[in-house]
Design brief:
By secondary structure, the chain is an all-alpha fold. It contains eight helices and no strands.
Length: 208
């Protein structure tokens, strides 16, 4: 994944998590979704053009569109006041695609088990948005907001900075540590959601 784009995905995840928790108005959050969505569509297009048909390079760029289309969709829906069910069903597609990218990260050429775990975390986030937006499981809104907020930095911002500074490393051991950290954060999201009755979840769309 493009490292610069990943950095700003961390920013928009944070904003969308706060939006679900009722701390940021949906129209205000929509602007950053449009910015990051545009970035995550332009970047892979350039990368694919520069790949000159190299399958591995094209595969690496293709996953960026999952983020780009999601954030553009969210930004447009929230600004225009459209219904969000379509985003929910699209999130189901993205969740399945994220599982495929996770498997490729674990077992494909140039395997990266740490990003295999990160893709699993993203698959969970998109699954939560499917449940909330497509199936109307609104009781999960606060949990989804907290999960998005807590996972935004360790799945995006931190690895982006590590990659850009040449400090990123990957191994089975590091992947296991990352998985443990994510499990703890997801459990913490459940605890915070149960205690945050005053944080009213937003009806706006805010996928990961």
């Amino acid at each position: 994944m493009n490292n610069v784009g990943l950095l700003y995905v961390g920013a928009v995840l944070m904003i969308n998590g706060l939006m679900l928790l009722g701390r940021i108005p949906s129209r205000s959050a929509a602007v950053l979704n449009l910015f990051v969505g545009a970035l995550q569509c332009i970047t892979p297009t350039v990368l694919i053009i520069q790949a000159h048909g190299e399958p591995q390079a094209i595969l690496g760029a293709s996953g960026l569109y999952l983020f780009g289309f999601t954030y553009l969709y969210v930004g447009i829906v929230n600004l225009a006041g459209f219904e969000a069910e379509g985003i929910g069903w699209f999130s189901l597609f993205v969740a399945f695609a994220a599982l495929v990218y996770s498997g490729l990260s674990f077992f494909g050429p140039g395997n990266d088990p740490v990003f295999g775990v990160i893709w699993l975390a993203w698959a969970l986030l998109w699954t939560l948005f499917f449940l909330v937006l497509a199936l109307g499981k609104t009781r999960l809104t606060r949990f989804t907001g907290w999960t998005t907020l807590l996972l935004s930095q360790p799945t995006c911002t931190i690895p982006a900075f590590l990659l850009m500074t040449g400090s990123y490393q990957t191994s089975g051991t590091l992947a296991a540590i990352a998985a443990g950290v994510f499990v703890v954060l997801i459990a913490l999201a459940g605890v915070l959601a149960s205690r945050s009755e005053g944080w009213v979840g937003s009806n706006a769309a805010a996928p990961a």
